[in-house]
Queue: 3 jobs
Job 1
Amino acid sequence: MVNEKITLGVIFGNRDFFPDGLITEGRAQLLGVLDELGIGYVVLDPQTTPLGAVETWEHAKACAALFRQHADRIAGILVSLPNFGDEKGVAEAIKLSGLRVPILVQAFPDDLDKFNLERRRDAFCGKISVCNNLYQYGYPFSVTEQHTVYPNTDAFKADLRKFVAVCRVVKGLPNARLGAVGARPNAFNTTRYSEKLLQAFGISVQTIDLSVVLGRAARLEDGDPKVQAKLDAIRAYVSTENVPPPAVVKQAKLGVVIEDWMDELDIDATAIQCWDSLQHNYGVNVCTLMSMMSQKLMPSACEVDITGTASMYALSLASGKPSALVDWNNNYGDDPDKCVLFHCGNWAHDFFDEVKMANAEILATTLGTENTYGTVAGRTPAGPFGYARITTDDRHGRIKAYVGDGEFVDDPLDTFGSRAVVRVPRLQELMRYVCKNGFEHHAAMTTAHVADVLAEAFETYFGWETYYHRA
């Protein structure tokens, strides 16, 4: 789903007393941009309705029938107004289609030297009318940053990329199948969640007891072809130079069992118990396997943090990049806008310049070094930092979230594990919000700025209370 090509249903609005040439030119320009950006589209052809546009009730019915025919492909609707357009035609076409997908409304600008009858558009006004009708009909929708904008501009291409990302989140998250491997650690009330609230939204949670996973892994032979293939994949993914070979083999067996279970149930992302049952009962950390899954855009979170997994999946859908689960872990000296992000070590490979397999040094102090091999150790270099957290607010029976953007920075940091230093403008304000509103100490992150995408998806299309911490 994360890498799936997005297809849009396109509606060109028209009013017949405006010049036909405006529709013909606008259609060619807009569809050319969609082709350029690799976005699929379903649109009326000029043989079905005049100019392939929508104006009348008959046109609306024809457009709706076409959209219904391709409903399984259409992830969003793009309404384009080369002229004023017909507000009812657009709204009726969407209503009759039966689609409930994100909608983006774009309008062409007028040129000051072309206010004659042959070139005047009035789409500036028409867009307001179309949006008014969408509001009346109860359809949530998005608009371009500039009220009117030509399709072949960088500004609109940015609008379109954002909208496609919104469509991916809106299509993918409510249909996500998340896997919970084991029970949450007893000490972690913070990773509680409401499975029923998630299911009411559309997210289903599949469970498997950790004893089942460990039992299946124990029955696998070292020479099993699947185990050997997973072993090769682990060694190709990360250096295991200083790790005892039996610990790597144990991880390979775990990987085979978890992957088979995910394939059987079509699971998109996981949350795994790890601490401290795996160390006590199996003798490894599962971090490297989680890192490998996250790298393949199948996010995996620690401590059975299912809403953390949902946050990771949302970020990957929005960015097309791997995501990771982090602790908001340490202050960075006396700088109020910087902090240290940390976890034992399950971040995807893309978060590091250099990476190696190691042991969980903090857990090793109580569980033994020999039982904690399997972490991924590395430092995230400077670059864009996007973060998000979804949670089920069980006391109020709702799902809520916060999102924001910042920067990874290269400031000195002498420690171990998966780690990063980040700068977030007004970080103290964000931390106050996190604490006062009952959010977890875990957050999800990615190497892209996508807070605007998630805010649009969560607020406009999901109706979630969402705090957007703007940089």
Job 2
Amino acid sequence: MSISLVNRPLTLAELRNSGWESKTVKQEIHDNFLAKLQAGEELYPGIVGYDDTVIPELNIAILAQHDLLFLGEKGQAKSRLMRLMASFLDDAIPFIDDPQIPVHDDPLRPITRRGRQLVASVPADEIRIGWWSRDERYAERLAPGTKFADIIGEIDPAKLAAGVSMSVEDALHFGLIPRMHRGIFAMNELPELDELVQVGLFNILEERDVQIRGYPVQFDIDVLILFSANPATYNRSGKVIPQLKDRIGSIIHTHYPLERDLGIQIIEQEVEARGASGEARESDEETESRRSPLATRALEVVVPYFMKELVEEISRAARRSKYVDQQSGVSARLSLANYRTMVASARQRAAVLGERPAVPRISDLGHLYASSLGKLELDLMGSHQMSERQVLDAVLADAIATVFKEYVDKHGLAEIAEIFSRGVKIEVGDMLPSSHYAALIKRVPPVWDKAFEVNASDNEAIRASCVEFVLAGLYATDHISRSQQRGRIVYET
């Protein structure tokens, strides 16, 4: 039973009279999830591409009231899915508001000795009730560097000196998991967790009690525990102790977007969420900036769809590259970082040259080293030893060729290569004005009409982007050659 904010009881007597019922956290999540499911509400906002794969298994695991492990490579929304579990909690739950109680003790079913004493000996109308909000009931920890005391607890020396026995809860300084009693605790990168801490975890999963330094402290911890892990390390013998694996209720396997369009949808969603889409809309602030010649106006950015396809295809090409360590994976964050770099390069050009709108081109992808290097882990065990820059060049060429071939099939662009047999040279660069391209293609306008079908527009900046795409595609498919110097590229036969 959920109680409205204005009518929340402030004493145990009021809480009992309100009809509020005590539930375990898993039962609470189960009931709220089922209600949303029956009402047809969106269950996992922001999760794209998992409707027919991950989501059905996750739904069943929630209804089964299991502790969960999200198993997948980096950048597959594992942490986001874990955090979304908190959305199935009540807005707030009541707890005994007493400074001597180290957890948010259930007023109707207290687990601490202090809580039970209060309920048994103090009049109900004198026991204060606080409310623990949904946002505070989720805690997350990264496994590397995590100690037993951090998440389980430790004996408090000061309490021992005061004569408290080591076998009772009063002697403990609680870690994160006991303090998340009636909440959700998530552990990222489980295989990196120290074995001693894993032992403490499986004891909590199985017995729901705490054992510190051989002293069992019996009290029924109520917590939903979530884990994330990479398959390469989780399945490696000895990284996760068998007893802990055995006590995890369900394993949810995640994956990268199965289709390029889904990856683009993720990029657009994340960019919009972070306010960096570049597709600026006029606001009062911009209107005011036009009145002031010294003010900087926001730049509208138009991103041709084939450029979005290229950014996503770079990540997809990296995931199939023999030079990249596929056990580590290639995060969706690579696409997002590259997209933002590409848009930033287009904005810089538009600002310097005074072009409107700013339109990304292939030459803007020359800046992707900054946003890509470090996100690709090379396969050091392979026979082909290449530097990160060489690998990125190979991946970029693969992505351009893949996308270009699709457009060739659709628009018949191969005939453009014939113009280079006449000795035509075309220079491109990220800081060349769009008018430069317009002047060059006037030499052979009928042939280039085909190029502009990939993104129909009369705008010079968009047409320049189309020209670069076609030239890069012809080079990537070995139809023409190119030379490169100081950021400028010349395409020729």
Job 3
Amino acid sequence: MTTLRRRIDTYLGQLLDDERFAFYQAVAEFGDAEIAPNLLRWERDHLLVPDETIAKMGEMGLFGLPIEAEHGGQGGTHLDLVLMGLALGYHSHSVAITPGAATSLGSKPLQLFGTSSQKAAHLPDLAAGRRMIVFGLSEPGRGSDATNPEVRAVKSANGWVITGEKCWSTNAKWASHVVVHALTDPTGRKGHRSTCFLVPMNARGVTYGEMGGKMVWRQSSTGSISFDRVEVGDDSIVGALHGGFKVMAETLNGGRLFVASLAVASLAFALDRVSAYVQERIQFDNKPIGRFQRVQDVVFELDLALEEGLTWLVHLLDLYSKGTLSREQAAKVKIACSRRASELLLDAMEICGGVACLDEFGLIRHHNDLFVTRVGEGSNRALMSQVARPLLPGIMSDLQ
């Protein structure tokens, strides 16, 4: 099969400065060398991302990209994190989300809201990839309704007692701590009822189990974490008391940009795979199927969506770095990129035919993994209401 040449590189070369583009290329080369040759074996043997691969990403500094240099990080921006997502997500969302979630969801709450002592205690090890923090938001009975967690933290003489369960927690297997979003003031106004706590995974009463049967992001650890009267002190609070929703919302803003980058990475892979295949696949009069306009239409749509998604993402990342990115903007790019990529992956598979169902061809992997980009970091359906809210203030002003 023809070696893929990345169309995405053409667009990124126009959008980035030389230093950022060189960084992206270095991570892409790592993906070619470390992920592509091993991915099928990991999948067929039902393995999570191996520890040695995680260690190599740590050595590259991928877990510390946006963490300040004073805390052992690379001192970069969220753009660097998204470039990593594009480079690694091209082959595997599972691999990309491992440092991606560890950074955009794990260390980000401490960066944004942590105390000086919390940052000093955790960020250096997080930046080096020696430690991960898992983001505890989703619950068996709560997903999109993030203002009303079922996990509760009750004030005690020595601090707080946490009870309940979190699920769909990325990187749970490797996590040393979990940021737990818990209800602390049931009678408070919406958005001011919860608090975030930083809880050690080895604390008494904390249990973790890998969620079985998952058919997407199959090399990524996805865990269920239970809290049976877990005792923590006031010094474990991340952000303000009863300000947990703000911690979650601001963290997810950047996380949605990263998830959008995974959708765009799938578009990039599909475009390269399809454009190569339709020039090689011979049918009808001993000619390649790429000569048919309906096939060309799919290649065109993939290319158009790729350029649009990249341009939009880079623009929003500039706003994010300036602190002016709104929740609605982050939600819109995540919704649009994930939906468009999902639709076009089906078209790409159709024109390739039966070979598209084979794991070694790669398209079925991206097709399946794209489902997570539609529901992760906020379900698209729920986020649409959030985006519509400022457009319909007369009827939606009473909603959070």
